[in-house]
Fold:
Amino acid sequence: MTAPLFPGKILTACALALSLLLPAAASAERIKDLATLQGVRNNQLIGYGLVVGLDGTGDQTTQTPFTTQAIGNMLSQMGVNLTPEQASKLQLKNVAAVMVTANLGAFAKPGQQIDVTVSSMGNAKSLRGGTLLLTPLKGADGQIYGMAQGNVMVGGVGASGAGNSVTVNHLSAGRIAGGATVERSVPTTVGQDGFVYYELAQSDFGTATNMVKAINKAMGEGTAQALDGRRIALRAPDTNDARVAFLGRVENLEINAAAAQAKVVVNPRTGSVVMNQRVALQPCAVAHGNLSVVVDGGQGGMPGAGVQVTQAGGAMVDVKTGANLAEVVKALNSLGANPMDLLAILQAMKAAGALRAELEVI
Structure:
C-alpha cells in the first residue's frame, strides 16, 4: 500500500502551528507591504549568449546546431573566418548556448550592476565552472538595456562513473551576482497632475478604506481618496525632494489590513494542501474508501496474468462545523485521507455547499 504523500499527523501539527502563529484579528501592516506605487515597476531583460570553459559538460553540437552557428558568428566578428565545412565539424563540448535573463529595477541608471540568471537552452549537462561571454540584454522594445558577462555560479554538483551518476540540485542554470551593467535607463514617472496612485496587491474595499483613513490622519485630511477597491489617489507635493520625503513617510505608515478571504489552495502535482485560518465547514457527512489495483504479470509475461481490484470499506464520517483551521484539518484527517484524496473530498464539499471557502487548484 502506498504511503500518504503528507501524513495526517504532520498536516495536523502544521495546521496547529499556523493557527497559533496567525492572529484571529486583523494585524497592522505597513503600506509598502500591501500596495505598490503606480508606475514604479521592474522591466524584464533577455539575451542569447554562450558559456565557455566547461569541463566537457557542454552542448552536443551535433544535436544543437544553433550553438555551432553562434560560435561561428562570434569568431567571424573577431577575425576568425570558418568555412561552412569547418563549422559543421566543430565538436565543442566545453561550450553551451544559454538564455540570460535579468530584472531591470525602477530608477536603474547606466553603470549600475544587476544580477542575471543563466539557463541552458541546449543539452548541456552542467554549467558549473563556465564563463558567460559578453551578452547584450534587450527589453520588450528590442533596445539593449544592459550587457552581461562573468563567471556562472551553479548551486549544485554532479558526478558520474561506471554507468552511475549522482546529481545534487540543478546544474543547467546558475546566477552571476552583479553580472550585468545597465547601459540604458527606463524613464519612470511617479504620478501626474499633482497626484500619485497606490495599488493594493489584492483588491479589498476594507483595506482601501483603512489605508485612506491612516494617510489622512497622518498627512492631513483630503490627502488620500479611494478610487475603487484597489487604487488610492494621493495629493503629493510638486517638487521632487518634497515628493520623495512624502512618499517615504506614507509607505511606512501602518494600517489594519482586512481579514483575508477564506481560501483552500491545492496542488495535485505535489500533493500540497494549504488552508488559511478562516476556512470553516458546515455540518456534512463524507464517505471515503481506498481503491487498490494489483496487476500480476505472470511468468515471463505469459498468459494467465491476473488483475485484482480491492476497495476498502468506506465509512460514513460525520464532520462537525469547523470554526478554525485546526478543526477543519482534524476533521479531514479523521478520514485517513492523503492530499490527493483531500482534493476530491474538498471539491465534493465545495459542490455540496459545506466548504465555506474559495477552492483554488494550482
